[in-house]
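Q: I'm building a small set of examples for a reading group on sequence design. Run inverse folding on the following structure and report the sequence directly after it, with nothing in between.
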């Protein structure tokens, strides 16, 4: 019999995968790229590497975003994802490691990620209220290359067993100052505003994953798990990923690097996120959905295709690197343009 925590992880896995198609919205359709018939570029000129921080370089601009750990089912999923991350040279984030301080048996379901991918780039993931000890333990267990701290107030509020205290900034700043690997602060699918980004910047956070609405919907997932109170009114809570990227675009940049995730289901979405300023792109629910529905071989094939297509699209847009995408012209659909104008982002 697995612990309550492990059962919750299994529920997240099955609900996220099962309903991904139903909750996904094509918000990136609101971003149209302008074609240049003279790219003056060869695909051989394109280098997919991205330098996210002085000590953090990834081989491909998209990666497998934080999902799971802490149960038998999670171990199986993590093993498969880590094998694919290894094969395709993709960075991979773990699910939240908070569970290992309560249930040491959960460790194996995370350890498998490093076991299957000894030299790959791995991001450990913890809650923003993690202690320094927890962070150091998670990093050393996985030999992690970066630490993701998730900020998920909307999810916790809907979760029956969730936190109700969201005083995170001072702890985040403390962890950033004490750890010697890059710290990424990420949402979990509710997006960020320029206010959030400014607060993170003033607390020394330089890697921010805006993780917006459009894909995995934790309001829907937790509402399905929550049988006492109905939070259906929050199903559309938060900024979409394109909206969050525009919010980030208007913030004072300095040395901040923005990462996108939330609703990415195609190589063109990866490219559009790059055009809107993302330096890298995380994909969670879509990959999980393919893995659970169509199997390992299909996800393997999709990852091979995405790498080829991203490279060719970069050449088509005349970009030798993912970072160059920020120079590509684009127009916004009327909904996104209206959002941008009302928020004074354009
Ligand atoms: C099953 C599942 C579990 C997740 N668990 C975590 C987690 O432990 N920590 C975290 O930071 N994000 C977690 N996420 C959120 C993702 O990392 C990502 O921010 C969000 O799902 C939006 O991306 P997507 O639309 O590609 O799924 C989880 C997502 C899924 C699908």
């Amino acid at each position: 019999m697995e612990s309550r925590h492990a059962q919750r992880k299994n529920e997240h896995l099955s609900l996220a995968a099962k309903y991904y198609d139903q909750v996904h919205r094509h918000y990136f359709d609101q971003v149209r790229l302008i074609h240049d018939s003279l790219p003056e570029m060869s695909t051989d000129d394109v280098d997919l590497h991205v330098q996210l921080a002085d000590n953090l370089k990834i081989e491909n601009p998209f990666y497998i975003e934080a999902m799971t750990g802490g149960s038998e089912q999670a171990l199986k999923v993590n093993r498969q994802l880590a094998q694919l991350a290894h094969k395709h040279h993709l960075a991979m984030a773990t699910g939240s490691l908070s569970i290992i301080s309560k249930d040491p048996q959960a460790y194996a379901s995370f350890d498998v990620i490093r076991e299957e991918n000894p030299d790959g780039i791995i991001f450990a993931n913890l809650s923003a209220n993690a202690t320094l000890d927890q962070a150091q333990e998670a990093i050393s267990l996985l030999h992690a290359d970066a630490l993701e701290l998730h900020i998920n107030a909307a999810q916790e509020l809907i979760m029956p067993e969730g936190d109700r205290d969201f005083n995170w900034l001072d702890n985040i700043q403390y962890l950033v100052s004490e750890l010697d690997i890059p710290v990424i602060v990420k949402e979990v699918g509710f997006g960020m505003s320029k206010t959030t980004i400014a607060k993170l910047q003033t607390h020394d956070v330089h890697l921010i994953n805006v993780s917006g609405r459009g894909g995995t919907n934790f309001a829907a997932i937790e509402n399905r798990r929550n049988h006492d109170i109905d939070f259906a009114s929050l199903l559309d809570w938060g900024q979409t990923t394109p909206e969050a990227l525009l919010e980030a675009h208007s913030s004072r940049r300095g040395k901040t690097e923005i990462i996108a995730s939330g609703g990415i289901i195609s190589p063109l979405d990866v490219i559009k996120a790059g055009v809107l300023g993302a330096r890298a792109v995380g994909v969670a629910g879509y990959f999980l959905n393919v893995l659970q529905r169509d199997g390992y071989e299909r996800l393997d094939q999709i990852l091979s295709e995405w790498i080829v297509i991203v490279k060719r699209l970069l050449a088509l847009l005349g970009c030798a690197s993912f970072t160059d995408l920020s120079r590509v012209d684009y127009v916004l659909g009327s909904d996104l343009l209206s959002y941008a104008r009302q928020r004074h982002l354009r």
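The domain at 4-342 is CATH 3.20.20.70 (TIM Barrel).
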